[in-house]
């Protein structure tokens, strides 16, 4: 998760080091990364919808990504790579933290999943292009967002689909995602820097700058009795899909 010639190094070294320190606890659903475990089903719901909408697939299919390649950029310890593999994809996970990649590879192997993990910046790895590219909760940790998105877009195969998520830069997110969330231990202190958050409008403009257009966008909200869920409320977090402009 996470992030000095700009196109090769966009993830700040201190960000990569921060998440490396959390690597061993990544798969503990009640540990320091508990918030990711709680949001992951919501992110996967959106990804599944985006896959079906983009390729016109059967929503009842168990392996909608069968025969397709997928890349998760900023993969952490593999929370998204593993379900993508179970959906049938040939999955590659890339992370700036070698510690994260090591934990991810060990966990996948223990679960009998064939996922390729690589440590480094996506721009510096010769890995080709992918039908599905995911990059979740990463861009807010990136120094040069436009350069990073150019690297992300370069990994998207013709006819492919991109899914990205990030916190919104709002008064609510400043209070809840940074202040309150860190105060109560929902996320580790230092996880978020509010000034690095981007609004949906800013994100769409950045994507347009690398010739990608947004096809769907939803908020990720919290409700009493509903927990985290996809919503029209984008005040805290949002997730989007995009494709190459014609």
From TrEMBL:
Q: In which pathway does it act?
A: Cofactor biosynthesis; ubiquinone biosynthesis
Catalysed conversion reaction: a 3-(all-trans-polyprenyl)benzene-1,2-diol + S-adenosyl-L-methionine = a 2-methoxy-6-(all-trans-polyprenyl)phenol + S-adenosyl-L-homocysteine + H(+); a 3-demethylubiquinol + S-adenosyl-L-methionine = a ubiquinol + S-adenosyl-L-homocysteine + H(+)
- The UniProt annotation places S-adenosyl-L-methionine binding at 43, 74, 95, 136
Keywords (alphabetical) are: Methyltransferase, S-adenosyl-L-methionine, Transferase, Ubiquinone biosynthesis
The EC number(s) this enzyme carries: 2.1.1.222, 2.1.1.64
GO MF term list: 2-polyprenyl-6-hydroxyphenol methylase activity; 3-demethylubiquinol 3-O-methyltransferase activity; polyprenyldihydroxybenzoate methyltransferase activity
Any GO BP: methylation
Alphabetized InterPro entries for the sequence:
UbiG_MeTrfase
Enzyme class comes to: transferase
Q: Which HAMAP family match?
A: UbiG (MF_00472)
Question: What is the protein's known function?
Answer: O-methyltransferase that catalyzes the 2 O-methylation steps in the ubiquinone biosynthetic pathway.
- Which PANTHER family does the entry link to? METHYLTRANSFERASE, UBIQUINONE BIOSYNTHESIS O-METHYLTRANSFERASE, MITOCHONDRIAL
State the family it belongs to.
Answer: Belongs to the methyltransferase superfamily. UbiG/COQ3 family.
What name has this protein been given in UniProt? Ubiquinone biosynthesis O-methyltransferase
Q: Which organism is it from?
A: Erythrobacter crassostreae
Species lineage: Bacteria, Pseudomonadati, Pseudomonadota, Alphaproteobacteria, Sphingomonadales
């Amino acid at each position: 998760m996470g992030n000095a010639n700009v196109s090769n190094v966009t993830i700040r070294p201190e960000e990569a080091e921060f998440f490396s320190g959390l690597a061993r606890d990544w798969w503990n659903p009640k540990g320091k990364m508990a918030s990711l475990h709680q949001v992951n089903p919501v992110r996967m719901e959106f990804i599944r919808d985006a896959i079906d909408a983009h390729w016109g697939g059967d929503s009842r299919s168990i392996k909608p990504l069968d025969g397709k390649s997928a890349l998760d950029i900023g993969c952490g310890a593999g929370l998204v790579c593993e379900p993508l593999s179970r959906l049938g994809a040939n999955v590659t996970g890339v992370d700036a933290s070698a510690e994260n990649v090591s934990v991810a590879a060990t966990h996948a192997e223990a679960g009998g999943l064939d996922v390729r993990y690589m440590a480094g910046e996506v721009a510096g790895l010769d890995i080709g292009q992918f039908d599905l590219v995911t990059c979740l909760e990463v861009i807010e940790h990136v120094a040069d967002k436009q350069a990073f998105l150019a690297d992300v877009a370069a990994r998207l195969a013709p006819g492919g689909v991109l899914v990205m998520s990030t916190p919104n830069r709002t008064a609510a997110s400043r209070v809840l995602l940074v202040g309150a969330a860190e105060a109560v231990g929902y996320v580790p202190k230092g996880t978020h820097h509010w000034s690095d958050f981007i609004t949906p409008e800013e994100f769409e403009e950045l994507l347009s700058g690398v010739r990608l257009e947004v096809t769907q966008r939803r908020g990720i909200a919290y409700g009493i009795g509903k927990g985290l869920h996809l919503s029209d409320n984008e005040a805290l977090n949002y997730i989007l899909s995009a494709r190459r402009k014609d």
